[in-house]
Amino acid sequence: MEKLKDSLGIKGTLRILDANTRTILYQKDNMVVNLGLAYIVDRMKTVPPDPIGWIEVGTGTTPVDPLDTALETPLLRKAVTDLDTDNNILTVETLYARFEAIAVWKECGMFNASSGGTMVNRINIDFNKTGDDAVIVQFTVTLNRF
Question: pTM higher than 0.85 for the full model?
Answer without folding.
Answer: yes
